[in-house]
Amino acid sequence: MPISTSAPGRPAEDGEVIMLSGYPFYVSGPNPEKVAAVAEEVGRVLRDACGDQVKAVDRMGSSAIDGIAGTPVCDVLAQLSPWPMADDAKERLIEMGFTFQGSAPHDPQDEWFFGGKGEPGHLGRVVLHTVPEGSQFVSDMKAFVEYVKYHPEAFKRYNDVKVEGARVMAEGGPGVDGQMLGYKKKKNDVCNEIRREAIEWWKREGHYKN
User: pLDDT (tens digit, 0 to 9) for every residue of the chain, 210 residues total?
Assistant: First the structure.
């Protein structure tokens, strides 16, 4: 069964869970306190590795929006100065279990890492983005999170397309291995539309940096 209300070893309060390529997708969102705890631990690890080069650490994307559907993987956005991360700091992160992924496809000034604890796709896992302090990417991501949090229609639009995409992929997507990729493609158009709205709103609010 691709859909369950309480998989073995998973507390009942997690609600409905859809499995995508072996990754749990929480229809009512992962536990926000547990996701926040993961982000805090990553912040401590990052500061141990990089010291004063770390200027700010925040959550980004769905993992920063309590109650929205999604996987429990936590996206963490770290601002560094100077950027990029020093080579010895990268080595320390690698020794702590992170893998360096190079420059992200969405922004050449985002060097990212995969890491954390537990199984891939499960609670405890992290995508760590490292960017220059004050970069436009930071402003864009902040705008997206705040817009979805405080605009119920945008929250519903984003949540609905995520849940719909997850159900379609779980029930008849392109094979188990391609379910997560198919889900991401289905939500992409709505995500980009909301991001554009969010940036325009953030500009009107006087917060946008460019």
Answer: 333 333 333 444 578 999 988 889 999 999 999 999 999 999 999 999 999 999 999 999 999 999 999 999 999 999 999 999 999 999 999 999 999 999 999 899 999 999 999 899 999 999 999 999 999 999 999 999 999 999 999 999 999 999 988 888 887 755 555 666 667 777 888 999 999 999 999 999 887 666
Rounded Cα–Cα distance for residues 72 and 127 (Å) = 11
Cα separation, 159 vs 33, whole angstroms: 19
Residue type, position 124, single letter: G
* Nearest Cα residue to 42 out of 88, 76, 5, 79: 76
84 preceded by a cis bond (ω within 30 of 0): yes
CB atoms inside a 10 Å sphere around CB 182:
19
Q: Is the peptide bond before 32 cis (omega within 30 degrees of 0)?
A: no
Instruction: Report the chain's terminal Cα–Cα distance, integer Å.
Output: 47
Q: Check if the beta carbon of residue 10 is closer than 8 Å to that of residue 55.
A: no
User: CA angle at residue 31 from 28 to 33, to 5 degrees?
Assistant: 145
Given the structure tokens 């325009």, which residue do they identify? 200
Task: Specify the DSSP element, H or E, that contains 30.
Answer: none
Pairwise CA distance, residues 149 & 131, whole Å:
23
> Tell me, what DSSP letter sits at residue 13?
G
